[in-house]
């Protein structure tokens, strides 16, 4: 294999490092072809570990010199590791000096030190620092860093690294230097440097503690006007973390730098966050409302890592969710607090749950299933997953719900008192939350709650209710189970908080009083800890409609066989905004699955009249927010429908959902027209939740009106869409109009796409949208794959740029099941070719594309056999990266 046959690493084998690093002094002479790195470290033996040789990790480095305490020393190479066996005994520090070179311009993996469009960047998480210098590349080795950067002043006028700038000036031969000192200990994965021709938006702020800070957002010249929103998001993040958790910025300055070549969304390097341009650049002419929201969320996420991830970091990579799950929870809370209104908060919660259900639940049920805290891995990059992030966030949210908002804040305070400056575990975090709340359900069931970290899979909670009219009691029985997952056959019961309410037949809230108690509330959280438990409510004057798992209080699948009438009651009246939306989704899913299982051709009237009428009522509702209406009127995704089936026919599912959508377009045509006219904004553009919601609803209405026009032959609405596309004053309205034309198959789609490209050919992020829209288009006659292949030959397409590869190839293979799953297997052949092609360039990106066929074993024939053959074709390649090999091997079950 290209990287050598990798073996699994196990959490149970963790050992503390035999050596510790106290200080690191790095000097870089930056050159794209040959960068020289002088690494001076003060190291010492770890007194708690038996004496061992020092083994330093390295990857694709040229070693020039090794010195110990100022003199030469013997060493050897063991694979990619540099081994020093004859270091001085005793507890005194040892001065170690290592001189290496590397070739950043040739680094297409975008890990370690690399060059993007003439600018130096680094990406060190998880194990990229070993591509810069030989080092103890593990997160539990924390040191103080001093970094000196030297480079040509004309080509690289800006020189940045972690911490505070302490010195800078000219050198001979047109060069210059900058010296940075980070006052806080950090692991090497948080190291960063940037050097290039950059400009900055700057803002000075003063913290609540009275300390002044400089905030900077660095971008390439020409992009500065697109950084205002990112700067505002950063200022809001700093203020929010102080107000919500009492956590202040701890450096003189905080920097964000954007690059278009980046494997991930962003990276939280201490004080120097490196971002994908997608999550920094935003203007109303080039970014949609979704883009604006994502910028705010990701800026917040990376800033919040400054404490939850940087000041306290992971003991080992198995604890990745310690920082990521917690910080996703924090960025979700930040976005909800910034949203303002209860309805806007609910919209954010629904959007987060949709991601969990459509991406994480399938992962939990597939070959790559793993616990929130994995027990083993082959390639750590493959475990930056929705399980670690999104499910990890839900596990934190359950702790928040079990101890309350104030209790969680106290738990966070205790967590930092105990562990600031340390590398710790998930157990340490949950222990702190429980210890700060000794009387809580979390503390009472602490060891059992930790199963959320150790057991993989999505629990199923079955709910059954029984009403006794004579006694006026309602008995609710909850049972839990969890299917076997790879390596885990038997699951023990979880701790599952289930928030519930009861509705009357007219939709009014019924009071909740548990038998044996005096308290009466409108909503309660039941804590399910056994395989089966029953709760009895008294004083229930009528047969209730149960509202279960309110706010999605736990990441579980709810199995409750409520009647259509009950769900329609919830859709019309439930005071819990999440469950009101959920009722509509459950009904739509029920009708969809009935149509999938039905014999013969797909019907054109899948949705019953009372459901269509209920959706009309939501659409016309006088007080519901437009964003919420848009979510309720959006049908469940094809991938989510597929997860409810044991055997999946992707074409049947696609045809059913398209028929349902067409039915809604035609049945509500007058209502869509009303929604479009009523919600079309005329004032100045603002990306706030209310304005964004109005634009989202008008965009959906325009698509539905164009779909209705497709069957009626009416050209008026496609014409209006094209006119709106041309005249729009912001990217959201323009792109919504373009999407309506493309997804409805309107004749005007082709000239609109050509015009769009001509308008934005110099805007890479906008052209990403152009590629993605065509790759995710509804397939009519098998035309999407030929179009994607043709677009790969386009002058603007580059496989080496992760954003561009994702925009075209991932949009087709991972986000367009109706076009990807072809009976002739051409989609699978295309996938296998692209995985192999990408693997030779950037294994991380290739491995993520390889995940597109995780669920192949559920497919019906002929898809199943063809998909397996495609995976086997990739697995048979002898020089696969470890990243891709782990994914395809697990997919095949080998």
UniProtKB/TrEMBL annotation:
InterPro entries xrefs: Aminopeptidase_N-like_N (IPR045357), Aminopeptidase_N-like_N_sf (IPR042097), PepN_Ig-like_sf (IPR038438), Peptidase_M1 (IPR001930), Peptidase_M1_dom (IPR014782), Peptidase_M1_pepN (IPR012779), Peptidase_M1_pepN_C (IPR024601), Peptidase_M1_pepN_C_sf (IPR037144)
Domain Peptidase M1 alanyl aminopeptidase C-terminal: 564-892
Annotated Aminopeptidase N-like N-terminal domain residues: 25-190
Cofactor(s) listed: Zn(2+)
Keyword Zinc: yes
CDD domains: M1_APN
GO BP: proteolysis
Top-level taxon: Bacteria
Keyword set, alphabetical order: Aminopeptidase, Hydrolase, Metal-binding, Metalloprotease, Protease, Zinc
Family stated for the protein in its record: Belongs to the peptidase M1 family.
Annotated protein name in UniProt: Aminopeptidase N
């Amino acid at each position: 294999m290209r990287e050598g046959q990798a073996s699994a690493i196990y959490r149970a084998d963790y050992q503390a490092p035999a050596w510790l690093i106290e200080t690191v002094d790095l000097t870089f002479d930056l050159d794209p072809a040959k960068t020289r790195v002088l690494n001076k470290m003060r190291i010492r033996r770890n007194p708690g570990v038996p004496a061992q040789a020092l083994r330093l990790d390295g990857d694709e480095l040229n070693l020039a010199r090794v010195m110990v305490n100022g003199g030469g020393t013997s060493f050897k190479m063991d694979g990619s590791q540099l081994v020093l066996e004859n270091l001085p005994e005793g507890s005194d520090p040892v001065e170690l000096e290592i001189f290496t070179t590397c070739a950043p311009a040739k680094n297409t993996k975008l890990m370690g030190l690399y060059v993007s469009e003439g600018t130096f960047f680094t990406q060190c998480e998880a194990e990229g620092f070993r591509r810069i210098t030989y080092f103890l590349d593990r997160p539990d080795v924390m040191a103080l860093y001093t970094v000196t950067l030297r480079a040509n002043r004309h080509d690289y006028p800006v020189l940045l690294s972690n911490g505070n700038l302490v010195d800078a000036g000219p050198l001979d031969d047109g060069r210059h230097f900058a010296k940075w000192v980070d006052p806080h200990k950090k692991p090497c994965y948080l190291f960063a440097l940037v050097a290039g021709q950059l400009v900055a938006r700057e803002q000075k702020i003063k913290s609540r503690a009275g300390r002044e800070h400089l905030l900077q957002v660095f971008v390439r010249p020409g992009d500065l006007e697109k950084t205002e929103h990112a700067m505002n998001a950063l200022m809001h993040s700093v203020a929010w973390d102080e107000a919500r958790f009492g956590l202040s910025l701890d450096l003189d300055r905080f920097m964000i730098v954007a690059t278009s070549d980046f494997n991930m969304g962003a990276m939280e390097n201490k004080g120097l966050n490196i971002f994908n341009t997608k999550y920094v650049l935003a203007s109303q002419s080039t970014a949609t409302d979704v883009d604006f929201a994502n910028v705010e969320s990701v800026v917040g996420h990376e800033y919040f890592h400054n404490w939850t991830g940087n000041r306290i970091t992971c003991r080992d990579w198995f604890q990745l969710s310690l920082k990521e799950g917690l910080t996703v929870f924090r960025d979700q809370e930040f976005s909800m607090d910034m949203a303002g209104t209860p309805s806007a908060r609910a919209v954010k919660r629904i959007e987060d749950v949709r991601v969990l259900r459509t991406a994480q639940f399938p992962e939990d049920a597939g070959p790559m299933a793993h616990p929130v805290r994995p027990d083993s891995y082959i390639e750590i990059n493959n475990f930056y997953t929705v399980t670690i992030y999104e499910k990890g966030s839900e596990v934190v949210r359950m702790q928040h719900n079990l101890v309350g908002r104030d209790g969680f804040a106290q738990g966070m305070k205790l967590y930092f008192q105990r562990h600031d400056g340390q590398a710790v575990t998930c157990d340490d975090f949950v222990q702190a939350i429980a210890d700060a709340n000794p009387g809580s359900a979390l503390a009472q069931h602490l060891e059992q709650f930790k199963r959320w970290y150790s057991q993989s899979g999505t629990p199923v909670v079955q709910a059954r209710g029984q009403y006794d009219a004579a006694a006026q009691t309602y008995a609710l029985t909850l049972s839990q189970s969890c299917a076997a997952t790879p390596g885990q056959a038997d699951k023990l019961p979880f701790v599952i908080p289930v928030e519930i309410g009861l509705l009357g037949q007219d939709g009014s809230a019924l009071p909740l009083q548990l038998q044996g108690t005096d308290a009466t509330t409108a909503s309660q959280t039941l804590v399910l800890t056994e395989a089966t438990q029953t709760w009895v409510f008294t004083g229930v004057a009528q047969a209730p409609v149960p509202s279960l798992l309110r706010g999605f209080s736990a990441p579980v699948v709810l199995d409750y066989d409520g009647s259509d009438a009950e769900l329609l009651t919830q859709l019309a009246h439930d005071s819990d905004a999440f469950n009101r939306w959920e009722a509509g989704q459950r009904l739509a899913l029920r009708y969809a699955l009935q149509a999938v299982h039905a014999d013969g051709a797909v019907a054109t009237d899948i949705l019953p009249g009372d459901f269509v009428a209920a959706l009309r009522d939501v659409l016309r509702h006088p007080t519901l927010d437009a964003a919420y209406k848009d979510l309720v009127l959006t049908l469940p995704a094809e991938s989510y429908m597929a997860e409810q089936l044991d055997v999946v026919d992707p074409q049947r599912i696609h045809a059913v959902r398209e028929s349902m959508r067409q039915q809604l377009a035609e049945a509500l045509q007058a209502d869509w027209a009303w929604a479009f006219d009523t919600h079309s904004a005329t004032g100045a553009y603002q990306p706030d939740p209310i304005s964004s919601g109005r634009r989202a609803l008008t965009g959906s209405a325009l698509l539905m009106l164009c779909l209705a026009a497709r069957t009626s032959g009416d050209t008026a609405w496609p014409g209006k869409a094209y006119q709106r596309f041309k005249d729009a004053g912001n990217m959201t309205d323009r792109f919504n109009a373009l999407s309506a034309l493309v997804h409805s198959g309107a004749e005007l789609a082709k000239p609109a796409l050509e015009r769009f490209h001509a308008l934005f050919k110099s805007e890479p992020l906008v052209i990403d949208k152009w590629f993605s829209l065509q790759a995710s288009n509804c397939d009519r006659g098998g035309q999407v794959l030929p179009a994607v292949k043709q677009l790969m030959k386009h002058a603007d397409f580059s496989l080496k740029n992760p954003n561009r590869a994702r925009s075209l190839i991932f949009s087709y293979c991972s986000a367009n099941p109706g076009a990807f799953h072809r009976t002739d297997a051409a989609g699978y052949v295309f996938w296998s070719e692209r995985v192999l092609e990408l693997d030779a360039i950037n294994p991380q990106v290739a491995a993520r594309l390889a995940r597109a066929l995780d669920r192949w074993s559920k497919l019906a024939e002929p898809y199943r056999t063809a998909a397996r053959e495609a995976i086997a074709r990739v697995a048979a390649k002898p020089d696969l990266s470890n990243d891709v090999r782990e994914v395809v091997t697990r997919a095949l079950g080998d």
